[in-house]
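User: Show me a protein chain along with its predicted structure.
Assistant: Here is one chain, sequence first, then structure tokens.
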Amino acid sequence: MATFLYKLGRLAFRRRHFVALIWVALLTLAGVGAASAPAAGNTSFSIPGTEAQKAFDLLEQRFPGMSADGATARVVFKAPNGEKMTDKDNKATVEKTVKELGDGSEVASVADPYKGKAVSKDGTIAYTSVKYKVSGMELEDSSRDALNQAAEDARDAGLTVEIGGDALSATPETGSSEVIGIAVAAVVLVITFGSLLAAGLPLLTALIGVGIGVSAITALASVLDLGSTTSILAMMIGLAVGIDYALFILSRYRAELAEGREREEAAGRAVGTAGSAVVFAGLTVVIALVGLSVVNIPMLTKMGIAAAGTVAVAVLIALTMIPALLGYVGRRVKPAGEKSRLFGGRRKAEQSHQAGRPNLGTRWASFVVRRPVAVLLLGIVGLGAAAVPAGSLELGLPDDGSQPTSTTQRRAYDLLSEGFGPGFNGPLMVVVDARDSDRPKAAFTEVEDRIKGLENVVTVAPAAPNEAGDTATITVIPDSKPSSTSTEDLVHAIRDTGADIARSTDATVLVTGSTAMNIDVSQKLNDALLPYLTLVVGLAFLLLIVVFRSVLVPLKAALGFLLSVLAALGAVVAVFQWGWLAGLMGVEETGPVMSMMPIFMVGVVFGLAMDYEVFLVTRMREAYVHGEKPSQAVVTGFRYGARVVTAAAVIMIAVFAGFIGSSESMVKMIGFGLAVAVLFDAFIVRMAIVPAVLALLGKRAWWLPGWLDRLLPNVDVEGEGLRARDDDRPRDEDRELVRA
């Protein structure tokens, strides 16, 4: 592989106009597609195989005009102080608003709050439910505008009016903190390279890669039912890995220049060595993201595949566009150890490496090699302490109650809780299928009576049968908020009761609604976590055996990753569930951790953690293969790799942390979780635990059974094949590659 990538790097350097033209053309094509495509909405939670989904499907069959998966809106009214919603003027305003809401072509039904008893006991709050014929993603902007205008007209009449539900799905905003993250990355790159030009190359290529990836996602959003969150997560991951991969290759290029090689040769060797690490690091990320499809949740599958595509683009750009740009900038990118005149003039690599003190990476690695047991124990205990809150992990899915208080959805949620109780925001829909029952009406009545006798039930609405009279819906209002464990217990209790009713009446009882769907999603994610972890870690473990030609090094990498993920989950629980530092992070409402957070973190963090593992440890193996003692190879790996890995980790943390400012609670949580996970993994696991373990293992770290060694392909990540080549031979072979 190193030889092929070496030739690819030289080819891109020499044919830089062609390479640049291809990437600019792809960016333009993706941009045009995105500009002409409709905006993405919020994806619906379609969960094949769950009871909630079966109930939705049944409603579509038995209640054809009901639009079970259609968008909904709750327009909540509150009377001015000292007045009631039943006062003549206020009632007239509400009735006028209901009439306006019913005029839309996509509106299926609008409920009159006075006929439907949707006025609070104290008379100060009322609401009307608007049901649409299409889903939130398919809802036209004109329908949303009409909804907002009707609410605004009621406000002008003196009422407080807020709107909840999924009809007002808004594209999440990331805020200025995302720009701050990129700015921090730029500062780190400038400090690392001592040159504005060199620092700009990774940023430029990363932005081009993300531009292509996100534009392609936007262009396909309507066709593939991709939500706006999908593009944000692809941007988050694409930016981080795009900068890091370019940083790895550019750093190796400068090191090759410092050894006296010509620029084209240096570009080829940088892509052949660091590029090999980039390919395998990218493969682990792609495996982890595509592996999310095993969970069988369409939204999660699409998010994973879209982000994986952006990572693949980042790898290809790093391998081709970085050497092409290096051909353009020429001598303005200095060898390692030299800085541009703006940053202190020219200092030769020999002066900084030989005449001066050993760099910080060398000094740290030497310390760890001398005190491996102490460093190992301290790292494990520290991560273990951070992981303690993970033992209290509660999972759920965000609803309007987790929105910022500045949004109308959150204010509507709070008004409904104030007027009707917290459970009113998460009603349960019980579907009774009595087609096989001899006494369907009796079955409906028995279900009502049995549910009324359960704990945590406030209201049970009378059964509403379909025209055929063989299926009915019963609305149940819990006494607890939708995301609470009490509501989850009630859902399970109704389902258990339904099993008893089925035996006595031959009627099937199903529980659905957004709250029940969220509970089923959480359970499905919990059940899939272990198989997913086994699949992803197993495949990546095999890949790393091929890269390192060792059994213990990949095993150590996997165990270290588990430590960092558990510690990061502990931090997420502490902030988003317990409320520690919640104000600093902009968390206005604590509650259960998003259900997909553990499995998403496992996938993404594993892939990203292997980036640093591959880049840092391949340097160590390279030194070991060329004759250095195991302990000295650890120090050598840190001498050349620690500075780059540190810069890459800081950049990735800054990019992820930039998304903490998002208005979307899911994006905020993922940004925080990934930033903390990279912090733990890069600076505690890879920088402390890894060298300590390798120092303790010695030669055993690189042990591989002879039979396995013969079976594995030799991918030559260390670039051993390049050392035997002279400076002239590659040119002829490159010409052959061009002709091919």
